[in-house]
Write a structure and sequence with these properties.
- The chain is mainly α.
- It folds into two domains: 71 residues, no CATH class; 69 residues.
- Helices cover 63% and strands 0% of the residues.
- The protein has seven helices and no strands.
- Helix 2 packs across helix 3 and helix 6 packs antiparallel against helix 7.
- The protein is extended.
C-alpha cells in the first residue's frame, strides 16, 4: 500500500477532523496527506506526508533506528526482510546459527558485566542490555524466518 492509503485508513478510524484536532493541524493538511502525492505531478492535490518523510529520513541517513523507535512506540520491534541470494546454503546456515549464538552471548556478557561489581543493574546498564536484546531479537527473527521460508531446505541446495 502507498503511504497515503495507510494514512487514510488510519484517519478513517477516528475521522480526519478528530485526527487533525488531536495533532493540532488543519483538517485540510490531513486530507492532503491522505491523497496521492507525486513529484512528477506538481498540480496533484496530495502533500508529502509524515510516512513519506520518515522513509526519506531512513533513506538519507541509512539509519533504521528511526524505524525501530517507531516500532517500539507501537509495541514491537523492527526486523528487516530476509534476503535470498545464490550463496552456499550450508555456509549461510552455519553463519546464521553462529551469529545467533554470538548475539545471545553478547547480551549475556553485558548482563554479567553489569552485575560484576555490585550485583545490581543501573539504568545506563539496562539501556545497553536492551540494545543487545533488540539486536538478538532481530537476528533470531531473521534466522527463524529464513528457516520457515525453506532457505536452508534441500531444495535450496539443489537436491529437490
Amino acid at each position: 500500500m502507498r503511504s497515503d492509503e495507510i494514512l487514510k485508513s488510519a484517519a478513517d478510524k477516528i475521522g480526519v477532523k478528530a485526527l487533525a484536532a488531536g495533532l493540532k493541524l488543519s483538517p485540510a493538511l490531513v486530507y492532503k496527506w491522505c491523497q496521492p502525492c507525486r513529484a512528477e505531478d506538481p498540480d496533484g492535490s496530495g502533500a508529502l506526508n509524515p510516512l513519506d518523510r520518515l522513509a526519506q529520513i531512513v533513506e538519507l541517513t541509512g539509519d533504521i533506528e528511526v524505524v525501530n523507535w517507531l516500532c517500539k512506540q507501537a509495541g514491537g520491534f523492527f526486523v528487516p526482510d530476509v534476503e535470498v541470494d545464490g550463496r552456499d546454503v550450508r555456509t549461510d546456515l552455519i553463519v546464521g546459527a553462529q551469529q545467533l549464538v554470538k548475539e545471545f552471548s553478547d547480551m549475556l556478557e553485558e548482563v554479567s558485566r553489569s552485575i560484576a561489581n555490585d550485583l545490581c543493574i543501573e539504568e545506563s546498564e539496562a539501556v545497553r542490555i536492551r540494545h543487545h536484546w533488540e539486536t538478538l531479537k532481530r537476528v533470531a527473527e531473521r534466522f527463524v524466518t529464513a528457516c520457515e521460508a525453506g532457505m536452508f531446505g534441500p531444495e535450496m541446495k539443489g537436491e529437490g
